[in-house]
Design goal:
The structure holds three protein chains of three kinds.
Chain A (H helix, E strand, L loop, with lengths): L6 H18 L7 H19 L3 H16 L4 H24 L18 E4 L2 E4 L14 H20 L31 H10 L24 H15 L14
Antiparallel strand pairs in A: 1-2
Helix pairs in contact in A: 1-2, 1-3, 5-7, 6-7
Chain B lengths: L1 H14 L11 H11 L1 H4 L37 H10 L14 H12 L23 H13 L3 H4 L38 H10 L18 H11 L10 E6 L11 H4 L4 E4 L1 E2 L14 E8 L3 E9 L16 E6 L21 E7 L3 E7 L5 E3 L6 E7 L2 E9 L14 E9 L11 E2 L3 E5 L6 H27 L1
Parallel strand pairs in B: 1-4, 1-14
Antiparallel strand pairs in B: 2-4, 3-13, 4-5, 5-11, 6-7, 6-12, 7-8, 8-9, 10-11, 12-13, 12-14
Helix pairs in contact in B: 2-5, 4-5, 6-9, 8-9
Chain C lengths: L1 H20 L10 E10 L4 E6 L4 H4 L2 E7 L11 E3 L13 E5 L4 E2 L2 E4 L2 E7 L5 E6 L7 E4 L5 E6 L3 E6 L7 E6 L4 E3 L5 E8 L1 E9 L3 E9 L4 E8 L2
Parallel strand pairs in C: 1-18, 5-8, 7-13
Antiparallel strand pairs in C: 1-15, 2-3, 4-14, 4-16, 5-6, 8-11, 9-10, 9-12, 12-13, 16-17
The chains are: A mainly alpha, B alpha+beta, C mainly beta.
Chain lengths: 253, 481, 232
């Protein structure tokens, strides 16, 4: 069991364990670019570990040196000389023959909202505004129920019955419809922000960060101010998310 | 006495292996889940008349009828397990989603509650639909399946090649008198009860309750024909559509062939694009007829051509009085391709920002057009687009061809550039015209540059260099020692 | 000659025994009678016509859907006249038989006692037997060209609608009746034999015009007349 004490074996073991941890231990799975970055750090740390003192370094290098020089290792040496160039050659082939991918559709998740919008000629404050329907606690259930009906008749096709962005029209869109169950969407936003996105839709997105590919309709053409606030209440109620509050001090973005 | 009772229970459990893991749900607990998740479509009374119902096709299930499409029983009522599976996996091709987000317990409770709308229909003990002895799929089995498909005349509803275009399709009604479409057998991913072998065989054997689809278990020549039919149905189309987001236009050196049925096009792999209904402008199209178009494309120095394939059950004869319009399809491009820049509004542009269209319309053929919104399409005078179309067994195949370099405001297609493209289609036979259409958001199109030989040159060079480096290292190491 | 004699003797003997112990249908008052029903309809016939787009070799080019057929002297055809109360009445159990011929159900209305229904396909094309019932299990079974005969069970009294989804104009009815029954002819007349004597309720049912009942007094060996006028 001498190899258990070998520094070379330690190094390989650490790298293998670290890889398994990054690849399978993180939920949701980390992108390859992140794994690559982490692995580089681990590799550097391992090199520092094995080269901590000259004994350790010698211990680490011994198996490598023996593979390179030992007459008894000749077979392994030749095998490596065939396998490694072939592997690298194959890698080069996959890179050279790769087909191009479509440019990703950008979705800056939260573009800055305007301070006010015009809803059918009526100015509506977005910045710092609260959902006016929430003041009336007694009618909460009524508004949520009305919102549910509006949602199922208008939004469900794309955003899904389950509010997860997987409606039966979703397959035709790039990027896919927003997933309200995801804590990164409506839970990060104020209700007034949603009001702006629902009322103005894709056409109302700011021009600075184009190109957009949002197919979100401008619902001001179809829904009244109250209906938009109601559907917003339904979104939070049905997903169990809480709207973000405006920071009182700044009252801004 | 107790022993006998125990024996009966044990026998019942053994004889219903499908139910062995079924849990008894709590209908009262299920009511709360139902009212939160199911009510908006299926209605408070479970009669399928929720607020969304009028917009949906197929309609939400009326639970008070106790009639269920998907069941593994030979008797009328499904098993709890059948209902649980539909709740958990949804019904592909309809607006019923998979409710796997609910806990298993919640789902069993919902099943119990849904059953309570027609409790008397579940009194009879379910009898499992037995399937004939399994047969492995093979070329012979598929051949036999085809013979049986023709002998039992599946084509009457499902069409000769399975595209739901059979002569009886217009007449079909469900139990409630709503028109109902036969399944498109080439699109297995839309099968309501799942696309697995056993799923298909069970539907064939037991039929689909509440629909015109009859039971065939006693109506094939030999029992195992059920499996041969299953294999033939599976051979009619791919398992999944594998939707593309980038459309590659193949570079060719020869002339591009006009005939949509030519080998030239058959050799290319289809790139499937999913379409959905236009629900932004009135009149809206909540239940579009065309849900997919398969795209093939080719270019050479002079020309570019698009080969589009899509299923449409009728080659419409336009007749405004009968609400029949011309079938049509189009590709939409920005007039000027500005890499990374803003694109016109995806819904055929707007007043400020128009789009360029390559359009094919029944009776008019291929033409160039521009649009400033879905109702403002203008044919380009002196259109240079040409094309050919064939309609066969419920499917259109159309080639639209044009010069690669466009004049004036017509899009020019440059190799290696990501060109935005979107698709729109109309099934005139289903009353689609104007804003009633199927469409996509913007996708990308790319003219593939002729494959260079780089991929054959670089890898050997890399391999040889690596080998040389390794030899060098070994030499140096040996010399040092 | 001896054979005929033998047969006659046997018949007489059987009759004698029957009279003596009483047939199941023959009630205490003894014997059975006949009901002659006359069903009239004062409205217009309802017949729809449809252009056939398939199987024209078998089905013809025009399908006729007969919802109300009125014959001579305003007689209503295809109405079922029955005596539901006379269970297991004097008659034998009637086996149901329906044929799919020329893309029509022949006859349009079948009368049967609870039990087996024989379904034939004489057309050499696919039909599917699709029944709409509440008392009996509903049936939707394919009957391809090679399946000439199928047998299905209808064990509960009911008027069952039968359709074929492949040929949507095809429409037939099966009247499952516990007692003796008959279907009106082209003049609206139906004759029911072997009705037990005494007070009986006669029921008339028509697929479009609904149901009516009347009380009659059946006398042994006599024909009792009863007339109905169906309304929309």
């Amino acid at each position: 069991m001498g190899f258990l004490r070998s520094r070379f074996f330690h190094a390989v073991l650490i790298l293998a364990l670290a890889f398994c941890l990054f690849r399978f231990g993180i939920r949701p799975p980390a992108p390859w670019s992140v794994i690559r970055l982490y692995m580089t750090v681990v590799l550097l740390a391992t090199l520092i570990y094995v080269s901590a003192d000259s004994d350790s370094w010698r211990n680490f290098v011994r198996p490598i040196r023996s593979t390179l020089m030992d007459p008894s290792q000749r077979a392994l040496r030749y095998a490596l000389m065939v396998v490694i160039p072939l592997l690298l050659g194959y890698y080069a082939y996959t890179q050279a023959a790769a087909r191009p991918q479509a440019p990703p559709e950008l979705r800056a998740v939260h573009p800055a909202p305007p301070d006010t919008i015009q809803l059918r000629g009526k100015p509506i404050n977005i910045s710092g505004a609260e959902n006016p329907l929430r003041k009336d606690q007694a009618s909460f259930k009524k508004h949520v129920a009305a919102g549910g009906e509006i949602y199922i008749r208008n939004c469900m096709y794309c955003h899904g019955d389950n509010l997860d962005g997987q409606g039966h029209f979703a397959k035709g869109f790039n990027p896919p419809p927003a997933n309200f169950q995801d804590p990164g969407t409506i839970a990060m936003l104020q209700e007034a922000y949603l009001f702006w996105r629902i009322a103005k839709g894709g056409p109302g997105l700011p021009k600075e960060s184009t190109p957009w590919n949002s197919v979100m309709p401008a619902w001001e053409d179809r829904l009244s101010e109250e209906q938009i606030w109601q559907v917003i209440m339904y979104l939070y109620d049905a997903t169990g998310q809480q709207p973000r509050r405006w920071e009182t001090a700044s009252g801004g973005h | 006495m107790a022993d006998i009772r125990f024996g009966i229970v044990a026998a019942a459990l053994v004889s219903l292996p499908g139910l062995a893991w079924a849990q008894a749900g709590d209908a009262n607990a299920g009511k709360a889940v139902y009212e939160r998740k199911c009510l908006l479509c299926h209605g408070e009374k479970g009669d399928g008349k929720g607020p969304a119902a009028e917009l949906l096709d197929p309609k939400p299930r009326d639970f008070t009828s106790g009639i269920y499409k998907i069941r593994t029983t030979a008797t009328k009522a499904p098993t709890d397990q059948d209902l649980f599976r539909v709740v958990s996996e949804g019904m592909p091709g309809t607006s019923m989603p998979a409710w796997a987000v609910l806990s298993e317990k919640d789902r069993w409770n919902v099943v119990a509650y849904v059953k309570s709308f027609a409790a008397d229909k579940f009194k009879e003990a379910p009898k499992k639909q037995e399937l004939p002895k399994d047969v492995a799929s093979s070329a012979d089995s598929i051949k036999r399946g085809k013979e049986m498909f023709e002998a039992i005349e599946c084509n009457k509803c499902h069409g000769t090649e399975g595209r739901a275009d059979g002569p009886s399709r217009e007449e079909l009604k469900d139990e409630w008198g709503h028109p109902i479409k036969p399944a498109n057998l080439t699109k297995r991913w839309t099968f309501r009860g799942g696309a697995g072998r056993t799923d298909i065989a069970t539907r064939l054997a037991a039929g689909v309750l509440g629909t015109p689809m009859p039971a065939f278990i006693d109506s094939v020549e030999k029992p195992e024909d059920i499996w041969h039919l299953t294999h033939y149905i599976q051979s009619l189309g791919p398992e999944s559509p594998g939707y593309a987001t980038l459309i590659t236009v193949t570079a060719v050196t020869d002339a591009i062939v006009d005939d949509p049925n030519a080998d030239f096009w058959k050799k290319m792999a289809p790139q499937n694009v999913g379409l959905m209904g236009q629900v932004i402008q009135d009149p809206r199209n909540f239940n579009p007829s065309i849900d997919m178009v398969a795209v093939r494309a080719a270019w050479n120095d002079k020309e570019i051509a698009f080969h589009l394939t899509w299923d449409d059950p009728t080659e419409s004869k336009p007749d405004a009085a009968k609400k029949l319009y011309a079938d049509a399809i189009q590709l939409q491009f920005p007039p000027k391709v500005d890499a990374g820049g803003e694109r016109p509004y995806f819904l055929m542009g707007n007043d400020n920002d128009g789009v360029y269209l390559l359009r094919w319309e029944q009776g008019k053929g291929a033409l160039e057009a521009t649009a400033n919104g879905p109702t403002k399409i203008n044919a380009v005078t002196g259109s240079e687009a040409s094309g050919k179309a064939v309609y066969q067994n419920g499917q259109y195949r159309v080639v639209i061809k044009r010069a690669r370099v466009g004049r004036e405001d017509r899009t020019t297609f440059q190799p290696g550039v990501f060109t935005p493209v979107a698709f729109q289609a109309w099934d005139g036979g289903a009353g689609e015209t104007g804003t009633k259409m199927s469409l996509t958001s913007w996708y990308y199109l790319r003219l593939e540059e002729p494959q260079s030989n780089r991929r054959f040159v670089i890898p050997p060079v890399v391999a040889l260099l690596t080998l040389a480096a390794m030899v060098l290292v070994v030499r140096v190491a040996n010399r040092r020692s | 000659m001896r054979k005929v004699l033998g047969a006659v003797t046997a018949l007489l003997l059987a009759l004698g025994v029957a009279t003596f112990i009483g047939l199941p249908g023959a009630t205490a008052q003894g014997g059975t009678g006949t009901i002659e029903a006359d069903v009239k309809y004062n409205g217009a016939p309802q017949v729809e016509k449809l252009k056939v787009n398939k199987d024209t070799e078998k089905c013809g080019t025009e399908a006729v859907i007969e919802k109300v057929v009125v014959g001579g002297n305003k007689g209503l055809t295809n109405a079922v006249v029955s005596v539901p109360g006379a269970k297991g009445g004097g008659g034998k159990a009637v086996k149901g038989m329906i044929d799919q011929h020329g893309c029509k159900f022949v006859p349009h209305v079948v009368v049967m006692s609870p039990g087996d229904l024989e379904i034939k396909n004489s057309d050499d094309i696919l039909h599917n037997i699709h029944t709409y019932s509440t008392a009996n299990p509903s049936i939707n079974k394919a009957q391809p060209k090679f399946k000439k005969v199928m047998t299905e069970k209808l064990e509960k009294p009911e008027y069952v609608k039968v359709t074929c989804d492949v040929h949507s104009w095809m429409l037939g009815w099966v009247a499952v009746t516990p007692g003796p029954a008959s279907v009106t002819d082209k003049d609206g007349v139906a004759k029911i034999e072997n009705v037990p004597v005494g007070k009986q309720t006669v029921e008339v049912w028509h697929e479009t015009l609904g149901k009516q009942t009347k009380e009659v007094d059946v006398k042994a060996g006599q024909a009792t007349k009863v007339s109905f006028e169906m309304k929309k």
